[in-house]
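Researcher: Here's the sequence for the chain we discussed earlier.
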Amino acid sequence: MYNWLLKFFSADMAIDLGTANTLIYVKGKGVMLNEPSVVAVAENRLLGRKEVLAVGAEAKQMLGRTPGTISAVRPLRDGVIADFEIAEEMIKYFIRKVHSRSMLAAPLIIICVPSCATQVERRAIQEAADAAGARKVYIVEESVAAAVGAGLPIDKPVGSMVLDIGGGTTEIAVMSLGGVVYSSAVRIAGDQMDLDIIDYVRKNKNLLVGEATAEEIKKTIGCALVPKDKRDEKQMKIKGRDLLSGVPREAIMTESQVAQALSQTVGKIIDSVRQALESTPPELAADIVDYGIAMAGGGALLRELDVAIRQATGLPVFLADESLNCVARGAGTMLHNVDKMKHVLQTMY
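Model: Thanks. This is the structure I predict for it:
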């Protein structure tokens, strides 16, 4: 009776628990929440524990701007939980926000995890969701959810390939007949691109910029290939601290410079795609020639990345509709068909 009441008051949901952003799909409503996976905490010395001050977009604004007593942290690294207590508070906050802060919320939850996550890491994610008030928790690999969200025919006897580039990990999977034939994950993605830009600016412009500025550069003028016509390439003013004088100053970044900064990470992503193609059975590889490679995730929005992969592999490459929400929408589709999708859903206990 109690479980039935909780089910009545709760809206089941799918959570794309990402390193950079957390998206929540609510059954029957669609994607209802898209907020940064950032939590601002203060050290309470009297009680000897941390107190959560802000979560999501409000906390992200504090990154790099907090006094000594407050820290803005990301509880997830490389798609898995790095700080269990803060991750639990973040999940709890997001669940209550979706449920309009109802204390009776106890939803069934599907959580997406990277395929490289260990059993210990998967259990930690499930325990965090349980502690946040979930009635039942299922875990699904991000690549499977991305393929469903991209509309690939994974239930048919044809090979479907998806490339999901998130904040912490890049997932590659080949699926057929509802199962995963090949999957791999490399812990190189959008966050590494930000670090590449920070490193390039430091070495070539003697300027120190923060993660927020690097992310803005990537989104504004980020490009996977050096423009052929440099006369029309985009430029952007950036601000940071001069490493020689120690005072703030401005500099100019161009598309070509960003492409050079990102070349190593883009090359590693392309190498991972090549490795996946080499490990794919020949019949399914033939299908990929016809259907192409679907790209999903926020990192897939990097301009010219599809062109770079197409040039390297000779295969058709296309960007999934609403690629940023692709994993959450795919997990949401599974939410409507839990019984049919149990062969790809896991529960750790």
